[in-house]
Automatic annotation (TrEMBL):
PANTHER family: 5-OXOPROLINASE SUBUNIT C, CARBOXYLTRANSFERASE DOMAIN-CONTAINING PROTEIN. Residues 27-308 form the Carboxyltransferase domain. Keywords: ATP-binding, Hydrolase, Nucleotide-binding, Transferase. It comes from the Bacteria. Residues 135-159 are annotated as: Disordered. This is Biotin-dependent carboxyltransferase. InterPro entries: CT_A_B, Cyclophilin-like_dom_sf, PxpC. The keyword Transferase applies. Transmembrane segments: none annotated.
Length: 309
């Protein structure tokens, strides 16, 4: 039986219920959704001994989101440092912590990173829509009310109360995997040979700046103009992390809430770890692209997953 354990006193700019994502439905035009920084999301759940894909809160920017505790519990926080506070006590990400009824948990301005993840014992109890609890606002699916909307003032978050003993991360939280480094690994795709040699040199040697036009659908990179010799293309499926190059020559990296098909040529796709790292980049941050083999990308992904065992 679920209980109301957190009440939203003040809603931030964007706090969404997320889980591991919505799969097996892209033929219906329904996107993946799920935690943008899946690594930090997994660690938040790991701290409580949850299933790694249990539903949690993804909090973007902070922006004054304030939650009031209505029942004693143990929660966990991972990912970006959004100047979180329990009453007046600062809370660093990468830890499990106890809360008691009457306390308030608030998030303010980003200090490091963009997205924080708040996990609860066993995961949030929200409606399951097409196999997932994740909110996708554009498609009006999932989330707190099942309609894809972000948290609003007065909402109440529920889960199945149980006693848990919080874990400690096996590394320094300040060195969180997705918050460090500015090199984004990319596996070259089928159209990469159609880009000019100059464009390929620029793509992997230039510094790219994160544009303000960035959200859960995609992130635009600002830098040198890239040119592809391909004309029109038949639209094809778009994978997570796909790096499309539209006619203006400025790459767009597509993320969790991307469209399911697209017709722009692609340099390739970011690795899962690189996509998670990009999801933590604030506008204005500078990044670089680094081509790697599929085999190396797969080995890196498996190594990351092994860390949760």
């Amino acid at each position: 039986m679920t209980h109301t354990l957190l009440r939203v006193v003040q809603a931030g700019p964007l706090a969404l219920v997320v889980d591991g994502g919505r799969f097996g439905v892209r033929h219906l035009g329904v996107t993946q959704g799920g935690a943008a920084d899946w690594v930090s999301f997994h660690w938040a759940n790991w701290l409580l001994g949850n299933a790694l894909d249990a539903a949690a809160l993804e909090i973007v920017l902070g922006g004054g989101l304030t939650l009031e505790v209505e029942q004693d519990a143990t929660l966990a926080l991972a990912g970006a440092d959004l100047d979180a506070r329990l009453d007046d006590r600062p809370l660093a990400p990468g830890m499990a912590f106890a809360v008691v009824a009457g306390q308030r948990l608030s998030f303010h301005q980003p200090r490091d990173g963009l997205r924080a993840y708040l996990a609860v014992p066993g995961g949030l109890a929200t409606p399951v829509v097409l196999g997932s609890r994740s909110a996708t606002p554009r498609e009006q699916l999932g989330g707190q009310r099942g309609d894809g909307s972000a948290l609003g003032s007065g909402d109440r978050l529920e889960w199945n109360p149980r006693q848990v003993r919080g874990r400690r991360l096996p590394f320094d939280p300040a060195q969180g995997i997705t918050l460090r480094g500015n090199r984004l690994a990319l596996v070259p795709g089928a159209q990469i040979g159609h880009f000019s040699g100059t464009s390929l040199y620029r793509a992997f040697n230039a510094t790219w700046r994160i544009d303000t036009r960035a959200d859960r659908m995609g992130v635009r990179l600002l830098g040198p103009e890239l040119r592809c010799r391909l004309g029109s293309m038949v639209s094809e499926g778009i994978p997570m992390g796909a790096v499309q190059v539209p006619p203006d020559g400025q790459p767009i990296v597509l993320l969790n809430d991307r469209q399911t098909i697209g017709g722009y040529p692609r340099l390739g796709a970011l690795t899962p770890l690189a996509a998670a790292r990009l999801a933590q980049c604030l506008p204005g941050k500078e990044v670089g692209l680094m081509a790697i083999s599929r085999e190396r990308a797969l080995a890196s992904y498996r190594s990351c997953l092994d860390a949760f065992r």
